């Protein structure tokens, strides 16, 4: 029902810097564009985008859908939300979240930047997994690359050794706030206070993404291999 509506996967934009257009998840929705308009910014100066009309958007023959894209500062991620069925977002349903997108931007990542992960607990896996350029479009007021200033800072940060067996060392950053580790499927497996030494001995062998979040809410990501 309404939960299924939430799976829209196509953002397209017709008005630069103020609009996001999304199109996707045709298993649950008709092949149509959902238009998100920027309605303001939150206390962290991140954009807030809501589909219009607020109540009454046709949704694949299943009724009507309302969606929102906004920043979740507690979990340091952008989220794609659906309303609870009343045209409001008092208790929204999480459809997708961007697990590795650049958090320094005021705009949400495109569907090809970072990793937009499908919340299968809500969608029952009907949207084909993570958003990609092949199964959806998202255009308009989105960012698609790391901020230039972030790249300069990132070049000074060192994460070693790589591959690693027990402890990862981080150098070149003095304002770290949090460290997160994601597996190859984009799932968060570790989240803890920043430290220059991160014990990864209990992780399974494989490829991971180490995400460093600063006190200024910038983020830097590094791939590493756990032996």
Strand content: 35-45%
List the secondary-structure elements in sequence, H or E: HEEEEEEEEEEHEHEEEEEEE
* Mean pLDDT value: 78
The share of residues in helices is under 10%
Keywords: Signal
Signal peptide: 1-16
Domain Secretion system C-terminal sorting: 159-219
Protein name: Por secretion system C-terminal sorting domain-containing protein
Please give a handful of descriptors for the protein shown.
6-stranded antiparallel beta sheet; 4-stranded antiparallel beta sheet; 227 residues; Secre_tail; 18 strands; 2 domains; Immunoglobulin-like; mainly beta; disordered N terminus
Walkthrough of the structure:
- It holds the Pfam family Por_Secre_tail.
- Residues 159-219 form the Secretion system C-terminal sorting domain.
- It comes from Chryseobacterium oranimense.
- This is Por secretion system C-terminal sorting domain-containing protein.
- The chain is mainly beta and 227 residues long.
- The protein folds into 2 domains: 19-140, no CATH class; 158-226, Immunoglobulin-like, CATH 2.60.40.
- Helices cover 7% and strands 41% of the residues.
- The chain is built from 3 helices and 18 strands.
- It has a 6-stranded antiparallel sheet with strand order 3-4-7-8-9-10.
- A hairpin with a 5-residue loop joins strand 5 (57-58) and strand 6 (64-65).
- The longest helix is centred in the middle third of the chain and has 7 residues, at 148-154.
- The protein is globular and about 50 Å long.
- The N and C termini lie far apart (44 Å).
- Mean pLDDT is 78; it is low at 1-17.
